[in-house]
Amino acid sequence: MTGRDPSWQEPLRWRGGGFVGRREEIAAFEEALRRSPEGAGPVLFRVHGPAGAGKTALLRRMESAARQARAATVYVDGPVADAVGAMAAVGTQLAQQGLPLKGFEERLAVYRRLRQEPVAGVFGTGADRAAVTVPGASGVGLPGPRLTPGTGAFVRAADAEQVVAWVDRVKARFGSRLRSYEDVRLVLSPLQVLTPVFLDELAEAVRGRPWTVWFFDAGDRHAGPVPGTWLHDVLVTGRYGRPPANVLAVTAGRSRPDAQRRDDRTGPVVDLPLEVLTETEVRELSAAAGITGERAVEAVLELSGRLPVLVSTLVAGCPAAPATTDRPADPAADGRPSGPARVADPGRATVEQFLAREADPVRHAAVLACALPREWDEDVYRAAVAEEAAPLFDRLRRLPFVTGRAGRHRYHEVVRTAVLRLHREQSPDLWREQHTRLADAFRQWRERLEDSTAPDGGRWQDERLLGHRLEETYHRLCADPRAALPRALRELPDAYDHGTPTLRRWAEALLQAGRDADAPAVSDRGRQVLAALEDPLPGVAALTLLLDGDALDTPGRALAHLLRARDRRNAGHYEQALADYRAAVALAPEARRAHHGRGVAHVLVGRYDDALADFERVLDLAPDDARALADRAEIHRQAHRYDEASADYDRAVDLAPDDAWILAGRGQARQAAGRHDDALADFDRALELDPGDLWSLADRAETYRLAGRHDDALADYDRAVELDPRNARAAAGRGETHRLAGRYDAALADFDRAVELDPHDAWALANRGQVHQAMGRYDAALADFDLAVELDPYDLWALVNRAETHRIAGRYDAALADYDLAVETDPYDAWAAAGRAETHRLAGRYDAALADFDNALELDPDDAWALAGRGRTHRATGRYDAALADARRVVAADPDDGWSHYEEGLTLRAMARPGWEQCLARAVERFARDAAGAGPGPATGEAVPGEAATGEGGLFVAHCALSSWEEADRHLTRFLAAAPHRGQVGEVLADLDALAQAIASATEHLRPFRHRLEDALAALP
């Protein structure tokens, strides 16, 4: 050997600077680097093999080859928590090379902030909640929508099966901080949001580079790289969009990849299974190190088991050996293996052989001590070794079985396991002492950091603190497993509170500490928790495991119940969640978080009084908690207690005047109370504080729409769609605004887009059905209403609209079936009662019609539509005085409406009372305005397509009532020329029937008109 200490990789390059072994694997990778990125070829190399097979050495050699090819390289050493962590690691290393992914880093920062905020606990952390089980409406107990005829304003119940609607409900009821649909998607499905941004930024950053190569080396403690599935989806399937063509990835792990995804070697994925070295390769490595004696080579073969890391360790010699200028003739004289030996544990045999050559006790002890920490830098090294060994840091980190990057070093797991076993068996007292010293060092570093971080939550939010706490736990478990296990188990609920990846890290530390310290009770606990994390509800399973035993103290049990309650609530298991919340409150009566969580659960099952009691308890504990005040205000708003809601929101705004979330909540409450100007002021201020808040933008747009300010509403909806083209709520809201303005083609385009983005949005479907209905497309309307009702059988808005469509189309039995269900579902809904009454009237069932009209007007005395319908029914049954009274109430309610004057005039003529000509003349005046396109549309001053036909139809029947038959004939011709839809023709026919009943002398004149209308109706599709 040469006279200097070899570095860890030197045994593999002693032979003329070449890499001995793994030639085929290196050649396959280098061939991929030589091809054009646009050409076909592999994009993902998957290295796998047993511990010690040389995976890391191979990846390091590939990294060197990539750098020689001028590629930008990323090397992630050790496992990452999840695919988000993989993207973060890639972004960090590229930024260090001057290739920042700024847009991705911004979205990642938002994601991390949302994960850490307390309200994120409603959903679990984003990494935990890739999918959310949404409860059906029947299990929620939410109040049904209140429907207002004519305006389209309503409060809809939750869509039963949809995540976005579920989040919408959550937000509306207890103040989620997820202020845009993009935030919702970011928390619930972070990969679907972050990965496309990551790929777009990556494509721009690495433009001009021949290649960008990612290396994910999971290490031998772990079965495989966590981002393996994600990498395959990104680079091979294109699930998240098209990746940059100049990206390659290499992963390394122990286990063989999923057989179902194994591709042919010439395909985009190349599997590189690594087995032990061949005998020829071992001989070549031995020869490169100057070991040529047959007995010595055979000893290397036997002791190493032909594992590359052990071969390297044996042939490298001891780095502390005295320097010599000439290689001894006999390798055995240099302390190398001198003979073959049959060993069951090649790792231990190799380590014993390696340590036997070290005569210096300080260096010998340092080699043993450096195996104790799972990873070490110079600070950890000095805490691990004796003071006199401090100068040996550089030598120790260059041992052949030590790998390192960015100042962090670790033993190869095969060697470390053997060293630990040897150390534990030979020096148990020293083992405990050194592990305790390391635990104390990590505690001191942790406490020093805690003093400089925020006292509330900082201990579990800072990654450095987490690392120190975890290593302290690991070393205490190794030093004294029995004494340290209760404390380690107590930390598990705190770890899960931080997120599933953190709990997994703690469980893996338990498993490893148990193995390293030969403590089955510890390793079994770790293994059980890891198994629980494979459950469909991992948090519930892991927490149940802890709660079923006696490992947790009272605060730990309270937290475990609290977290299990949160997860059960998120899964829709409300009664189980409430039981857990009760247990948490019983164990920790002063825990605001438990009361708050239980309040949320009570809201979701519709127990508003219980929810109020919970939030009031939160406010007893913290009277100036602005967010709790806003939560209580939201409960009042949902119960239509607008004065109480306003008082709570006002106080919350006083406490937090610059909290955009609270301002937006007060805006919603003011909107619900009809205080549109005040609501707009709140939304304006919220958007001033947070211009990117899509929720407030959509809420302001909705307020404008409800106030009839359609141009302002459209401007906000346009902005919302521009900021988030996938925002289904904004598209549907814009569609509804177009519908109310009578712009049916534009409305259909928006509703089509909303349904495309969210095929299960019952609100968008029902409103698109309304557009089809207004255009006379009854089959299309019914198809939309059918879907909406199927999605949510309790959606009265869709149900009543379907009934109305059946009624307009003359399908009275089908209409009555829907109206019956609607009235049964909500006996207090005036619109459903009035619709059923009108259907009975048209079918000639006057007694049933009058009963329903009376009920509808008792519920809503100012409903002009119900008044007009009841008046027609009274007139049809000869109750002219009652009919006239209803007609005049309608005129008083809406003097600009032509039909109200028509009804009054027709009733007066049927009664042979004076004044009927003047009333019908006023009706003609207003119908003429509508026919000219100057009439007001629904809730707006804009002309509406189809109003001309309605106006001409009104002029026709009004002139019939005036017995102006030539004018009637002229307006009927104009009506039919205006391309009326089936509903408009059917309504005119119904008006003719009512007119013939009121004026018997007009029957003969009306007959030819009826025939023309019936022929026109038969010709329509």
Describe this structure in words.
With 1021 residues, this protein is mainly α. It is 63% helix and 4% strand. It has 49 helices and seven strands. The strands form two sheets. Strands 2-3-4-1-5 form a five-stranded parallel beta sheet, sandwiched between helices. A two-stranded antiparallel ribbon has the order 6-7. A hairpin with a 2-residue loop joins strand 6 (402-405) and strand 7 (408-411). Helix 40 (830-842) packs parallel to helix 42.
Topology:
Elements lengths: L22 H12 L9 E5 L6 H14 L3 E6 L5 H14 L5 H15 L46 H12 L6 H8 L1 H16 L6 E6 L10 H10 L9 E7 L15 E5 L5 H10 L5 H11 L3 H9 L29 H11 L4 H9 L8 H7 L8 H5 L4 E4 L2 E4 L1 H14 L1 H23 L7 H4 L1 H17 L1 H18 L1 H17 L3 H13 L5 H10 L6 H17 L3 H14 L4 H13 L3 H14 L4 H13 L3 H14 L4 H13 L3 H14 L4 H13 L3 H14 L4 H13 L3 H14 L4 H13 L3 H14 L4 H13 L3 H14 L4 H13 L3 H14 L4 H13 L3 H14 L4 H13 L5 H16 L15 H15 L3 H13 L4 H17 L4 H17 L2
Parallel strand pairs: 1-4, 1-5, 2-3, 3-4
Antiparallel strand pairs: 6-7
Helix pairs in contact: 1-2, 3-7, 4-7, 6-7, 10-11, 11-12, 12-16, 16-17, 17-19, 19-20, 19-21, 20-21, 20-24, 21-22, 22-23, 23-24, 24-25, 24-26, 25-26, 26-27, 27-28, 28-29, 28-30, 29-30, 30-31, 30-32, 31-32, 32-33, 32-34, 33-34, 34-35, 34-36, 35-36, 36-37, 36-38, 37-38, 38-39, 38-40, 39-40, 40-41, ...
